[in-house]
Write a structure and sequence with these properties.
The chain is α+β, with helices and mostly antiparallel strands. The protein is built from 5 helices and 25 strands. The strands form 3 sheets. The protein has a 15-stranded antiparallel β-sheet that branches. α1 runs antiparallel to α5. The chain is globular and about 60 Å long.
Length: 505
Amino acid sequence: MHLSSPRTRRFAAGATAVALGATIAAAAALGATPANAASADVTDAALSWSLSNEANAGAYFGGCNFLSAGVAGDTGASAPWTATNPTPGYAASAGNVSIAYPTGAGGTSTPTFATKCQTGDGVTVRPGTTTAGVLTLAAGTGTVDAAAGTADIAWDGGFTVGFYGGMTYWSAEDPELHVAADGTGALTATVSGYAASRDGGSWAPLTPRTVHLATLTDVDVTSSGITVSPDWQGVEPASATSLNKTNADWGSWPADFVDFQNETGQSSYWYTSGTNDAAAKKPQPISIAWTAAEAPTPEPTTPVTTEPAEPGTPEPTAEPGTPEPTTEPGTPEPTTEPGTPEPTTAPTTPAPSISTGSSTTFTVGDAVPLRADGLPAATEYSIVLHSDPVVLGTVTTDADGAFATSVVIPADTPAGAHTIAVESSDGTAVVSLAITVTADGAVVIDPVDTTTAVTTGAAVNTGGTVSGGNAAASALPWIGLSAVGVVALGSVAFIAYRRRVTQQD
């Protein structure tokens, strides 16, 4: 259609301005990705895990089952380890991996080949008792997104698990953690070892492969880490031929892990094969702590729209020879009134919180994971079990005022209500967790009392660290305002344009 009327042409130009504004607004909305704003890099993730009580227990032959740092060499036969065979052999540390045994006073001791079958207090373990050894992999790197609930972290290093003094053993290298937005996750690693038997029979290297060390459900990814109990109850691998379901807590480690253990000779030690062995064989909680370095978020900018010039009309320019206006010489830029401080917003300090992750039921003698946030940085605390005070351990908070550790509830703890308190040096409890010990030795973490938490300012939590806000949601208002602002600018320009055209006509 031929547009011959100047008024018609002006109307079309105005409409074009509105359409252009709407297009830019739509592009702004589509181009924004608030989910990325919460993604953070980590370089110091520390994974702590005992694997299972059985993996640290006394054995009927060879002294004990044990954890060792590094990938052990080939002994050449199914026989207990010696101080010189295999090579490399027993180690409490190797690269990013270390092994520690908790002590009754709340500290830790470093085992040696000679003391690997003794508790941190020097008591030799026997079948049914455990050293409670803790494996730690440090310097994990990757990305986490607390708002989205995702994490991808990898570690460089390996460890070895020996049973019956090392008559059968296997190793895991370079574990990787992956957590999806729905709270499911997996800890995988490359495993290797030897086809062996506890009676000293077969011996042959196995083909290395990647397996699941743990499958995870209901993982709560926070800005400082996670604590989660691996899947166990009701897991039923096809290769678990002697699986016993008579215990209410029957279960198994992951299917591909059990398949591998069928070759090492350890298979029945990774699922319930008896009526009362679930507490010994089930996975202990995994604790992972990190310091997240938030990626910089670009400042939002408002798109600028301009009214299109009349066809054939040159763009206005400054009058030739007329300089651009500048600040009057000698006139200083306006500043804040002298003596008037700039308004600031007082930083908000989160209330102290304590958590056992997604697990709320344990057994006396288990390692119970604890994670706390909102405490003063670089401060030492004691973890004390009440009513009769028993010191379970000591911890020091990191630069963010958080810590992740595990404590063992003594086997002789009487049935009834108790409290796990985090206490400062003067004995003041800064945050605490209520527990109930049942007559059969179960440790139940009591539900959160939100009223008390609000009143005291200390959040008591059993399902992950309490955190407020939603990064994705907080980013949305800016997107909406950007789009609306562009449309509004276009609309105002068009209305002003129509008014001017009407006056001229």
